[in-house]
Amino acid sequence: INNFGNSITYRPKVFIPLTSMCRDKCGYCTFVKSPQDGGQYLPISDVMSIAEAGDSIGCFEALFTLGDKPEIKWKAAEDQLNDFGFESTHQYLINCMKEVNSTFKILPHANPGLMSKQEISDLKLYSPSGGIMIESFSKELYSKGKPHYKTTTKYFDLRLETLNNAQEVKYPMT
After folding, report:
1. Cβ neighbours around 78 below 10 Å, total
2. Which of 169, 68, 151, 154 lies closest to 111 in space, CA to CA?
3. What is the pTM of this model?
């Protein structure tokens, strides 16, 4: 909900859990599952069914939820992507966003983690905006026993680099 003066606006969205796998395991996260715990990619047929349901009830946005490049950590993730005909989570995400964008009246949005300029340019083709989480600028979070201990993608300088990449290709990010 956005509050501008006396008006409150809301844009209904549908959530599409593209994958619950992630190469990181943050101490506070309840979203991430390993392949052994049931983590997997959502098949395109399920992606399209969820998007269709959202479109049919008037959603304006399809928020793709996913972890950061799980195929880097797990062979099972890489194998599932290969079975779908893709080499990376990024390729699969782009394909799903393209299909949703061309089939329905809802706009794809994703927060896939760290991204290069090229990856952001790819997203920009099918999505008006994206996002990245920067939970804190405290280096304390990387210490043993803290939430980002042994994570590889949560360093705020890497996250700021993604934001800078987005700025360079003029892609709005939340």
Report:
1. 17
2. 68
3. 0.90
The residue with tokens 């994703």 is: 110
Confidence of residue 146 (pLDDT cuts 50, 70, 90): confident
- Kindly indicate the confidence band of residue 104, based on its pLDDT and cuts at 50, 70 and 90: very high
- Asked if 24 contacts 154 with a C-beta cutoff of 8 angstroms, the reply is yes
Report the C-alpha gap between 80 and 107 in whole angstroms: 26
Q: Which residue type, as a one-letter code, is found at position 127?
A: S
* pLDDT of amino acid 124: 95
Task: Tell me the sheet residues that pair with 107.
Answer: 61
Q: Which of 62, 63, 65, 64 has the alpha carbon at shortest distance from 104?
A: 62
Q: What is the pLDDT of residues 24-48, one digit of tens each?
A: 887 777 788 989 999 999 999 999 9
pLDDT at 130: 93
> How many angstroms separate the CA atoms of 112 and 1, rounded?
23
Residue 129 phi/psi, 5° resolution? -160, 160
